[in-house]
Write a structure and sequence with these properties.
By secondary structure, this protein is of the alpha/beta class. The chain has a single domain, classed as 3-Layer(aba) Sandwich (Rossmann fold), CATH 3.40.50.300. It contains twelve helices and eight strands. Strands 3-4-2-5-1-6-7-8 form an eight-stranded mixed beta sheet, sandwiched between helices. α8 links the parallel β6 and β7. α1 crosses α12. The C terminus is likely disordered. The structure holds adenosine-5'-triphosphate and magnesium ion. The site of magnesium ion has 5 residues, from α1.
């Protein structure tokens, strides 16, 4: 059976795309799923996050994008972790778009280069750069699904319209098969009402209904530490909340075939601060009090409980 090819995209910078590609990939590999992570970002953060420097990279996605003869399989390397494979990036990739301008079928270059890789791997996760560039279009054109990490931040939904615009164009013109599997809430801080408000807005967004993962990734300092150490947090700090969240995400993704509705975050949406007490209703004791609307089951997401507040980013 062909594996699942998933573009991890959001044109907003710093929302957790690379962290998600690394750790979802590592968590899938850990449960025995042969997984390839593809670094399609010239920043090469995914490549570095798996412990490689540019000196270690002889062949990269740059070669794949600019040489029509090159197959993605030619640049795939093993990582230190069983079942986890990497197609590394290189800073040269930043010049690829210009080199590709006169290339025939340039939006389909990655899709063509994938060859039979989807038969070899159960999951292929493509880490995109933070822009709706030709490289990102290539990632979406080569994928069956997209996964959009969104930081639980007030500006999270900004730019979602633009993202859907590109997604719709690619669906219409290049790859009618591609579907939004899910939005992943990242860097959630359960102590803040702002985080909750953002999730509330996401849940109310008409195009996101059924497309938000129940798994939420909390803010956790171990993530940055693991990236500094060149290892997935799933292995670097095996039991920290972020590692547990990415394992839960792997299980959730595995259980939800493309197109299946997702449950959405099961978090307590009520304000953290105690509300002002309601005035006593006329009628005194015995009058039924208004109950809060039955919300989703209250289960706090994995957050940064293990880290003292001062240490958090
Ligand atoms: N759950 C988390 N808790 C704390 N820090 C996090 C978490 N996830 C990611 N980060 C940190 O946030 C920063 C941005 O994360 P990441 O590089 O994954 O985002 P990105 O969307 O790939 O960024 P870019 O758009 O530049 O490619 C990094 O410094 C990373 O260590
Ligand atoms: Mg990134």
């Amino acid at each position: 059976m062909a594996g699942r090819v998933i573009a991890v995209m959001n044109q907003k910078g710093g929302v957790g795309k690379t962290t998600t590609a690394i750790n979802l990939g590592a968590a899938l590999a850990e449960i025995g799923e042969p997984t390839l992570v593809v670094d399609l970002d010239p920043q090469a953060n995914l490549t570095r996050g798996l412990g490689l420097t540019s000196a270690d990279v002889t062949r990269s996605t740059y070669d794949v994008m600019t040489d029509p003869e090159r197959k993605l399989a030619d640049v795939v390397i093993e990582t230190k972790w069983p079942e986890l494979f990497l197609a590394p990036s290189h800073i040269d990739l930043s010049g690829a778009e210009i080199e590709m301008v006169s290339m025939y079928g340039r939006e389909m270059r990655l899709a063509r280069a994938m060859g039979g890789l989807a038969e070899r791997f159960a999951y292929i996760l493509i880490d995109c750069q933070p822009s709706l560039s030709l490289l990102t279009v290539n990632a979406v054109a080569a994928s069956r699904e997209i996964l959009v990490p969104m930081q639980a931040h007030p500006f999270a939904l900004e730019g979602l319209g633009k993202l859907f615009e590109v997604y719709d164009i690619v669906r219409r013109e290049i790859n009618p098969e591609v579907e939004l599997t899910g939005v992943l809430v990242t860097m959630f801080d359960r102590r803040t009402n702002v985080s909750r408000e953002v999730v509330r807005q996401m849940l109310a967004h008409p195009r996101l209904a059924g497309h938000i993962f129940a798994t939420v990734v909390g803010q956790n300092i171990r993530v940055a530490e693991s990236q500094g150490a060149g290892a997935p947090v799933v292995h670097f700090a095996r039991t920290c909340p972020a590692a547990l969240a990415y394992r839960a995400l792997a299980a959730e993704l595995r259980a939800a075939p493309p197109g299946a509705p997702l449950a959405g975050p099961q978090i307590d949406m009520r304000e953290r601060a105690a509300p002002e007490p309601e005035p006593e209703p006329i009628g005194g004791e015995g009058t039924p009090q208004a109950q809060p609307a039955p919300g989703p089951p209250v289960a706090e997401p994995q957050a940064a409980e293990d880290v003292p507040e001062a240490e958090r980013e």
